[in-house]
């Protein structure tokens, strides 16, 4: 399944002189960045031939054990594009879409980056997206909250003591749902039909959520883990999926709170009460992600926040 790409406003993006789409052709990412593949998935993508092909792949990479009726429920055109409107300037001409993508890294603690983050057209957040009490460092706007079933449940459990008790809920906020397993599709079906989850550990009612974004393939983040017996554990982190989605949708991307080579100097999260070392697990290759963010930054495709 092709998982990423282009600006929903292709003609407008071409009129943005600093657009990533203009700059990528002169970088080493020119063959990795595909403009012909939609970022958001909705009903037209659930074609019978694709369903048959992807039933052979499980987890984040296919539709194994996923019911056909779950895939065909995304029948609203609103699920087909990321942004409701393109930002305009005072003279009516389109401006560049500027996006802030905010991870939860401890590098943001004491950063005073909040005002700069909130000045972007759109702000992406993920996992324990705490803003109350941390506005000065991380801002308070959330345009898009990105999650899978596991990251949502784990964040609500793991970060409750820090004050994360519910997903961001503002008039601006929209949800981007990442399917990792048949469990995710069960929750998706329940949300779209306004019915309780009918089986599994999440049995019960669920609030509405939209739009829907597939997880990425290995074009940007093909880890060596995939060549080991633990291959089935691996997927890019939710923060990585979020940043790559913004990279393929926005004209300009600023990344805040993502892992940098000096990560040992900071706590795991900006909201940690005491210092916690960053830990690495087999399901994500954070070292590979860190190298990718450095390469994208050096190619001037993103602006990466550092404390320098």
UniProtKB/TrEMBL annotation:
Topology versus the membrane: Single-pass type II membrane protein
Keyword Transferase: yes
Domain of life per record: Eukaryota
Catalytic activity of the protein: a 3-O-[N-acetyl-alpha-neuraminyl-(2->3)-beta-D-galactosyl-(1->3)-N-acetyl-alpha-D-galactosaminyl]-L-threonyl-[protein] + CMP-N-acetyl-beta-neuraminate = a 3-O-{alpha-Neu5Ac-(2->3)-beta-D-Gal-(1->3)-[alpha-Neu5Ac-(2->6)]-alpha-D-GalNAc}-L-threonyl-[protein] + CMP + H(+); a 3-O-[N-acetyl-alpha-D-galactosaminyl]-L-threonyl-[protein] + CMP-N-acetyl-beta-neuraminate = a 3-O-[N-acetyl-alpha-neuraminosyl-(2->6)-N-acetyl-alpha-D-galactosaminyl]-L-threonyl-[protein] + CMP + H(+); a beta-D-galactosyl-(1->3)-N-acetyl-alpha-D-galactosaminyl derivative + CMP-N-acetyl-beta-neuraminate = a beta-D-galactosyl-(1->3)-[N-acetyl-alpha-neuraminyl-(2->6)]-N-acetyl-alpha-D-galactosaminyl derivative + CMP + H(+)
Keywords: Disulfide bond, Glycoprotein, Glycosyltransferase, Golgi apparatus, Membrane, Signal-anchor, Transferase, Transmembrane, Transmembrane helix
Localization (cell): Golgi apparatus membrane
GO MF term (any one): alpha-N-acetylgalactosaminide alpha-2,6-sialyltransferase activity
Database matches in InterPro entries: Glyco_trans_29 (IPR001675), GT29-like_sf (IPR038578), Sialyl_trans (IPR012163)
Pathway(s) served: Protein modification; protein glycosylation
EC number(s) from the headed UniProt entry: 2.4.3.3
Pfam families for the chain: Glyco_transf_29
Intrachain disulfide bonds: 99-250
Enzyme class: transferase
UniProt GO cellular component terms: Golgi membrane
Entry similarity comment: Belongs to the glycosyltransferase 29 family.
The protein's name: alpha-N-acetylgalactosaminide alpha-2,6-sialyltransferase
Species whose genome carries this gene: Pelusios castaneus (West African mud turtle)
